[in-house]
Amino acid sequence: METPTMKPDTVLILDYGSQYTHLITRRIRSLNVFSLVISGTSSLKSITSYNPRVVILSGGPHSVHALDAPSFPEGFIEWAESNGVSVLGICYGLQLIVQKLGGVVVEGESKEYGKMEIEVKGKSEIFGSESGGEKQMVWMSHGDEAVKLPEGFEVVAQSAQGAVAALESRKKKIYGLQYHPEVTHSPKGMETLRHFLFDVCGVSADWKMEDLMEEEIKVINKTVASDEHVICALSGGVDSTVAATLVHKAIGDRLHCIFVDNGLLRYKEQERVMDTFERDLHLPVTCVDASERFLSELKGVVDPETKRKIIGREFINIFDQFAQELEKKHGKKPAFLVQGTLYPDVIESCPPPGTDRTHSHTIKSHHNVGGLPKDMKLKLIEPLKLLFKDEVRELGRILNVPVGFLKRHPFPGPGLAVRVLGDVTQGNALEVLR
């Protein structure tokens, strides 16, 4: 499915593997500014396609001296300057700017990790003209440090140990923070980000969830032809329910929901969820009890990643069968499958550094991303793929999903299978968990 049209004041984050990259995105969105994350090694064509007003280079676990150190593409700085795009480097991002523009970065004699006091030096754009001499506590996490700045740059803050804590080039509209302003351990960090975006870069705080909802509805209607049908896999969780409600708002009765009891659900989950769907949400839902099928496939399987793959595969097989039944009924087989994939699910499932991508290390493949078979016959519709969990709940409120349902405790698609440490069919492990 297409991605909604980007707003002109989009803040684009190039991800170099920082554990805080998601947090930067959320902090910016909390200011009503739309923000997205893409790989730090994306092509210039990819970066420019988002038409960003600001580009932020994230931190990361790398050293700029490593042979395979990730970097922005050739021509990126020139493009940003010529198009009036502001650039902010955070931690590794600062060091990358210094090195690529002719400065010097060395391994620090005394590495800075944890809380550290910095002092703002004179007038600066990124801290505000009245902040000279101000001291503040920030969160540092770096071993390398900038010792010589590129031409046209100046140091605007130093740490208590004398290291460069912030730099800027007003002419080039390029800025750098050696610390992490997005974490709560930097008490004035949000104030700095707010000042940078609104006062320095002139970004407008005009991103609203209602706008995204209307844009997603347009995209869904453009993707799904007027005579096509769509399947929605309802898990009973917040994400798939909000996704279904949104798609139903877009295409009405051409949406066909299915709830699969895979034998791995919580206590009386099927009864409770189906009651909510029918009584409160008025969504047409077919319930399929496939517990024996799933448990048979999982017999003897111990590895949690293998469990996820098996469960993802069986879900898709059931959806394909459901699609065939709908074809007999309506004369046309559904071509699309709706899933409640969220933004962190997509980023979380990316490959680790050193594999041509530079996102954070893969913790697990998400059941909506890494668990899907490559030969899946249904095309995906993922209307929530740009949202975080709290944003999904906000969208749900706008769509009048019951508040009690939106507050449900998250429950993963693989269910109790990944909470049983071993074979789920042995003994009475599932009943004990329930």
From TrEMBL:
Pfam families: GATase, NAD_synthase. The keyword ATP-binding applies. InterPro entries: Class_I_gatase-like, GATASE, GMP_synth_C, GMP_synth_GATase, GMPS_ATP_PPase_dom, NAD/GMP_synthase, Rossmann-like_a/b/a_fold. Keywords: ATP-binding, Glutamine amidotransferase, GMP biosynthesis, Ligase, Nucleotide-binding, Purine biosynthesis. One of its GO terms (molecular function) is ATP binding. It is an enzyme of class 6 (ligase). Its EC number is 6.3.5.2. Residues 207-408 form the GMPS ATP-PPase domain. Gene3D superfamilies: 3.40.50.880, HUPs (3.40.50.620). Pathway: Purine metabolism; GMP biosynthesis; GMP from XMP (L-Gln route): step 1/1. This is GMP synthase (glutamine-hydrolyzing). CDD domains: GATase1_GMP_Synthase, GMP_synthase_C. ATP binds at S235, G236, G237, V238, D239, S240, T241.
